[in-house]
Amino acid sequence: MKATLLAKPLTHARVEQIADQFAMPDLTLPFWGYRKKMPMHQIVRLEGEGNYTVFHFVDGSQLMVSLTLKKMESRLSPKVFVRPHKKNIINLLYLDSIHPDPQQMRVSLVNGDQVDVSRRKASRFIKQVKGFQQELQVLAVQPSEVLAA
Predict the structure, then answer these.
(1) Is 41 helix (H, G, I), strand (E, B) or coil?
(2) How far apart are the C-alpha atoms of 126 and 98, rounded to whole Å?
(3) Radius of gyration, CA atoms only, the chain
(4) Hey, what domains does the chain have and what are their CATH numbers?
(5) Which of 48-57, 75-84, 134-143 has the lowest mean pLDDT?
(6) Residue 89, phi-psi category: left (phi > 0), alpha (psi -120 to 50), beta (remainder)
(7) Per-residue pLDDT tens digits for 14-52
(8) Which SS3 state, helix, strand or coil, does residue 137 take?
(9) How many angstroms separate the CA atoms of 81 and 128, rounded?
(10) Which of 23, 135, 138, 148 is the most buried (most CB within 10 A)?
(11) Which residues does the UniProt record annotate as the domain HTH LytTR-type (predicted)?
(12) d(CA 7, CA 28)
């Protein structure tokens, strides 16, 4: 059983627009002796591997940094990034669908990745997704109100 959350995936231009409205700054990451700025809105998901975090980007590239997922979670925008499982943080801008299975809830992202939602975090995760969708609806209404004024 598959429940689609959005009528269609967000376009790249819409993601850029939402990123500006949510004030998603670039994220400075330690990388092989120097720091690298990465646009936060281009992160699809983060995956924890021990004391390291693997970033999965919208262009298919990956980057591993020597920071824990918990430390990275505190640097991300809580309006857009949610942690459905102890090993993953996902960007709701790239959420495609939720698969509500009695045994294990799972989400699909637009890049094809599937991430499990822990049973303990499932109800909070659903509330976060609904809140995010309401925020998107408010953002969609605001530009037309500005044009009418």
Answers:
(1) helix
(2) 9
(3) 16
(4) 3-138 (2.40.50.1020)
(5) 134-143
(6) beta
(7) 777 677 667 678 888 877 778 888 888 899 999 999 999
(8) helix
(9) 9
(10) 135
(11) 37-131
(12) 33
